[in-house]
Every structure is written in structure tokens, then in C-alpha cells.
Specification:
Belongs to the ketopantoate reductase family. This protein is an alpha/beta fold and 333 residues long. It has helices spanning 12-21, 37-43, 66-71, 117-122, 165-180, 191-214, 220-225, 227-248, 259-268, 276-282, 289-302, 308-331; strands spanning 3-8, 27-32, 45-49, 53-57, 62-63, 78-81, 105-109, 127-133, 136-141, 144-149, 153-157, 186-188. The protein has 2 domains: 3-189, 3-Layer(aba) Sandwich (Rossmann fold), CATH 3.40.50; 194-331, N-(1-d-carboxylethyl)-l-norvaline Dehydrogenase, domain 2 (Orthogonal Bundle). Helix 6 (191-214) runs antiparallel to helix 8, helix 6 (191-214) packs across helix 10 (276-282) and helix 6 (191-214) packs across helix 12 (308-331). The structure holds NADP nicotinamide-adenine-dinucleotide phosphate (NAP) and 2-acetamido-2-deoxy-beta-D-glucopyranose (4 copies).
Amino acid sequence: MPIKILIVGAGAVGAFYASRLALVPSTQVSVICRSNYTVVHANGFSISSPKYGSYTFTPHHTFANPRQAIDSKIKWDYIVVSTKALPDVSDDSEILEGLVGDGTSIVLVQNGLGVEEPYLKRFPSAIILSAVTIVSAAQTEPGIIKHNRWTRISVGPYLPGSTSWAAIESNKRFVQLLQAGEIEDAEEYSHSKLQMVRWHKIAINASMNPSAVLSNGTTNNAMVLDPELYIHLKAVMDEVLSTAPKVLGTPLPKEFATSEAILASTQKNTSGSKPSMLLDWENGKRMELEVILGNPIRIAREKGLEMPRLQTLYALLRKAQENRDQAKSQSHL
Ligand SMILES: NC(=O)c1ccc[n+]([C@@H]2O[C@H](COP(=O)([O-])OP(=O)(O)OC[C@H]3O[C@@H](n4cnc5c(N)ncnc54)[C@H](OP(=O)(O)O)[C@@H]3O)[C@@H](O)[C@H]2O)c1
Ligand SMILES: *[C@@H]1O[C@H](CO)[C@@H](O)[C@H](O)[C@H]1NC(C)=O
Ligand SMILES: *[C@@H]1O[C@H](CO)[C@@H](O)[C@H](O)[C@H]1NC(C)=O
Ligand SMILES: *[C@@H]1O[C@H](CO)[C@@H](O)[C@H](O)[C@H]1NC(C)=O
Ligand SMILES: *[C@@H]1O[C@H](CO)[C@@H](O)[C@H](O)[C@H]1NC(C)=O
């Protein structure tokens, strides 16, 4: 029996990992597309990568919408969600209604904090796996995926206040499939360590991304070379890194990079890469503000902890986004 995998949100990240999973002989990988359905249905995805070369990924099934996936009557072993996490725009757990069966594990490959909760609420008895990736990839044209660099993906079962051997086993199998697809740095984590990885990652994203937008589009490298912005970025990172252990009830592992180390490596890197939040802002798209800023602030607040620097960035950028969207909708009247 092949392992049946469904990708929901086959954009840059989803299509890249799907193309690696599809190389494993025991898998059948299908996708639900949206705007790029026609192109992908006709030609599949073209992937180019400095590590894996250029190749085509033809999904087992390419569905135009969730209904078609339900009508296929396939029992999914894994449903991988790799849409952008925009809980203020849509609850994407709804897409999975009618697709999650007894043996289905839901894998969330999304940035930020608190992305698991809507899925846990809707599917309380399903296995949920939580994944963080540092891959750099983009869909440059419909169906054309450019993998730039890095492959690491960290995956852990989402088990707040519970244990489940089935979830741990499913997690292990999923990581093994990624490794079999030559993602050598796919890593298996426990629930608690994966949440530490999420907090550590948002120390970078919650400092750099909103600051890049609010400083009128400054690149990460240019920001850390500016003395005042350096102080600002370090203080935001330290705020997140010192709040995380209090929320999680355990110190972050020693091997996680300190704020100084992150800033030093960003200082050395003179290439002008833009964080995706800045690209979204420049393209007039919604930013992943809630999962990168709003949720961490609210999760800390529930424990009686404030992150004032993060809160300031969140309040300002949320309002800027609201004003931009209002201006846009008025210009369409
Ligand atoms: N790109 C990176 O380098 C990178 C790195 C690390 C982490 N991440 C994280 O990975 C996640 C995914 O990012 P991404 O860059 O892959 O985004 P992306 O390229 O925009 O891909 C998201 C895809 O989901 C599709 N989608 C959204 N809602 C859908 C729906 N209801 N039904 C079907 N398809 C739907 C979108 O279709 P449409 O084209 O129709 O909108 C798009 O193809 C984000 O949380 C991001 O922060 C990305
Ligand atoms: C998908 O295709 C549509 C229409 O062809 C295009 O406008 C859009 O930018 C594409 N999406 C991505 C993520 O490339
Ligand atoms: C930067 O400022 C210029 C001039 O006001 C504006 O056109 C541009 O959109 C701004 N860029 C960002 C990322 O805010
Ligand atoms: C610096 O960034 C560029 C592109 O953004 C990337 O190609 C390069 O690998 C990075 N270097 C380091 C040391 O991270
Ligand atoms: C998170 O930060 C990394 C490193 O700066 C960047 O490549 C990525 O685009 C950021 N993610 C988002 C959602 O902005």
C-alpha cells in the first residue's frame, strides 16, 4: 500500500518538499492547487535547485479544489498544509473538512506560533505534526519553483499536555520519508523542543521582518550595519529569547544561536535578500503578522508576560496594513 500524501497550498515550500517526497518509491503525492491549477495540471511543477538540479514533479493527482480531493475517496496518510498562515484572513483548517480520516496525520509546514491551534480545535482526535523550515524557495511563475538554498526542516508531534505513541511514530515516519527524499537535515523533534525551535525562529522573524517594512524596505544586512537599528534588533531578539523560557517552562538549548551570533552572521552577509514579509508588503499582499507577532504576544500575555518592543512593532505594522488595505479598497470603488 503506497503512503498517500496530500499537499494543501502547493506554493514554493509545499511544492518543493512535495517534489522530494514524491521521489520515494513508497509514496503517492497529490496536490490541491488554487490560482496555478491550470498550469500545474497541464505541466506539473518545474523545480530548479542548486543542490538537486532541475527536474519535473508531476503530482499523482492535481486537484483544483478540496471538493475534488474528497471525491477521489483516497484515505490520506499525511495532509501537509503549506499555505501562508493568515488566521486574520482565513481559517485554513476548514479546507481539511472531509479529508481527515482515522489514520490521517496533519503536517503543518508554516512559520510562526500558534498555527496548530485551529487544527487541534477542529480535529481533536487527529495526529498533528508541527514543522518549521528554514528553506529559501520561491514560485517565480505559476508552476515554476526556484529553490535558492537550505533544506532544513524540523518536525515534531503537537502534543500539548498529552502523549501519543501513534503521533511520535507518525512523526518519525514522516521525517524518514523526507530523508529518503534526500532532505538530509530533516530532523525529528519532541513536542517541547519543536516549540523551542518555533520561538527561536520568531526571534529572527519577529525582529527583522517588521523592521524591514517599517524602515522603508531596508535589507537585513543594511539594518544590522546601522548602529541604532542594531540596538533595536538585538533588543527585540533578546526580548523574545528571554520570554520563551518563561512561557515554555524550560531554558532554550545551549546550541541555539544567541542574538549576537545571529546579528554577526547577518552583518557578514552583504547580499541584499529581503524577508518574505517585506516582499508581501511590496506586493500589496497580507503579511503573516498574526502568527509571527500577534500570537507570540498573546501567548506570553496569557502567562502574565509582556513583550513591549514586539508589541510596538505589531501595533504599528498592523495599522499600516489596515490603512493600506483601506486605501486599496477605496481606490477600487
Ligand atoms: N518561501 C520560503 O522561502 C519560506 C521559508 C521558510 C518558511 N516559509 C513559510 O512557509 C509557508 C508557505 O510559504 P510559501 O512561501 O510557500 O508561500 P506561497 O508560495 O504563497 O504558497 C502558498 C500556496 O498556498 C496556496 N493556497 C492558499 N490558500 C489556499 C487554498 N484555500 N486552497 C488551495 N491553495 C491555497 C496559494 O495559492 P495562490 O497562489 O492561489 O494564493 C499558494 O500556492 C509560510 O508560512 C512561510 O512563512 C516560507
Ligand atoms: C499563480 O498563477 C497566477 C495566475 O497565472 C499568478 O498571478 C500568481 O502570481 C501565481 N502564484 C504564484 C504564487 O506564483
Ligand atoms: C519607501 O518610501 C517610498 C517613498 O515614500 C515609497 O514609495 C515606498 O513604497 C516605500 N517602501 C516601503 C517598503 O515602505
Ligand atoms: C547570504 O545570503 C545570500 C543570498 O541572500 C546567500 O546566497 C548566502 O548563502 C548567504 N550567506 C551566508 C553565509 O549565510
Ligand atoms: C524569516 O526570516 C528569514 C531570514 O531572514 C527569511 O528568509 C524569511 O523570509 C522570513 N520569513 C518570513 C515569513 O518573513
